[in-house]
Amino acid sequence: MKKEGLAAKMRKSWKKTTKPGRRAAAKNLVSQEFKVSAPNHTWVSDITYIKTKEGWLYLTAVIDLFSRKVVGMSMGEHLETSLVERALNQALYQRSPPEGLIHHSDRGCQYTSEEFSKVAKKNGIILSMSGTGNCYDNAVAESFFHTLKTEHVYQRKYITREEAKRSLFDYVEFFYNRKRAHSFLGYLSPEEFEMNWNKQAV
Question: What pTM did the predictor assign?
Fold first, then answer.
């Protein structure tokens, strides 16, 4: 990098964005084991915030651990349980996973809410949650948000939330999932990695 005159984009310090829930959290079934053998075995989810002139835009992403593909996404101006519900429902609609899927998140009040638990139970999903205050337990989701912000968000100044929504959707759907190479995937994109796996599984 030095020879080519390149410099890394700096990582900003981690900041907590959600409040811990009052309900009992689920056990940590992932335990920082972020490699799985097939799609729709384990999904991870988290919430981050994007600055606009109108105020914060909150973004929830649901990521398949197998391919690191973003399979569900929701954006809104409030940190309500419906934000994470919409992202999960989008992922369920797109993927139709079998019963027994593990959904891993932090212990934020949105994920520990009764409403979210009902959605998970209805769809045969097993909830898993990080240890208290341990961001490394959800490192894949944290890594995705870091990539999103350093490669895309920090290069822009959003005026409205709608502008930010369109920009983030385009980045995730048309670049991150389909074109961005991941060293973890042998420098394939998430979509290419899943396509190769599906061909071999036939």
Answer: 0.88
